Amino acid sequence: MDAWRSWLKESFGKKLKRLHAWNAWLVALLALTGVVLYIPTIRGDLGAFRVFLKQAHSVLGIVSILIILYYIRYIPKHWRQIRQKINQRWNLVIVLMLLAGWSVTGLILWQFRSFPPIWSNAALVLHDLFTWVGIPYAVYHSVSRSRWLKAMRRREREASSQSEKHEGVSAKAVASEDSEILPQAQIDYWKKAPISRAAFIRWVIGLAIVFGVGPAFYRWLKTVTDTGGAELDQLAGEDANRMLPAPEALPESNPPVGGGGQGQFRIYTVTDIPAFSSENWKFTVGGLVEKPLSWSWEEFLKLKRKVQVSDFHCVTGWSVYKVTWEGIPLSELLAMADVKNTGRFVKMYSGDKVYTDCLSLEQAQMEDIMVAVLMDGKPIPQQLGGPVRLVVPQMYAYKSVKWLQAIELIDKEHIGYWEVRGYDNDAWVSKNRLS
Question: Is the pLDDT of residue 229 over 60?
Answer without folding.
Answer: no
